């Protein structure tokens, strides 16, 4: 994994690195490896994760096909009207 540091901006590079590690699941795996997990617990957890993934995929498909209503959409902010040009001061 590689992160480029632009303009000596290390803070931004760290944020990008953390986001990449989060997406890859490195933090979740580190937390899971802190303590031993029994094989039966592992199977149960993995099965629950698979069920969750399949339900999420089915829900997304149903929303896409219009079978169920999706989450309410946030209203888009209205475009502000342009400010009138400043006229010369009246004297």
Automatic annotation (TrEMBL):
- Regions of biased composition (Basic and acidic residues) lie at 33-52
From the UniProt entry, list the residue stretches annotated as the region Disordered. 33-91
A single Gene Ontology CC annotation of this entry is: ribosome
Q: Which UniProt keywords apply?
A: Ribonucleoprotein, Ribosomal protein
Q: Which InterPro entries match?
A: Ribosomal_bS21 (IPR001911), Ribosomal_bS21_sf (IPR038380)
Where composition is biased (Low complexity), the residues are 79-91
Per UniProt, what is one Pfam family of this protein? Ribosomal_S21
Give the family from UniProt.
Answer: Belongs to the bacterial ribosomal protein bS21 family.
Instruction: Spell out the PANTHER family in the cross-references.
Output: MITOCHONDRIAL 28S RIBOSOMAL PROTEIN S21, SMALL RIBOSOMAL SUBUNIT PROTEIN BS21M
Would you tell me the protein name for this molecule?
Small ribosomal subunit protein bS21
Q: Which gene encodes it?
A: rpsU
């Amino acid at each position: 994994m590689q992160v480029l540091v632009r303009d000596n901006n290390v803070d931004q590079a760290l944020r990008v690195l953390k986001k990449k590690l989060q997406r890859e699941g490195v933090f979740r795996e580190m937390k899971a490896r802190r303590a031993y997990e029994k094989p039966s617990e592992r199977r149960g957890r993995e099965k629950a994760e698979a069920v969750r993934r399949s339900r999420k995929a089915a829900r997304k498909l149903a929303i896409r096909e219009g079978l169920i209503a999706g989450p309410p959409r946030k209203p888009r902010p209205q475009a502000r009207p342009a400010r009138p040009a400043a006229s010369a001061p009246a004297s």
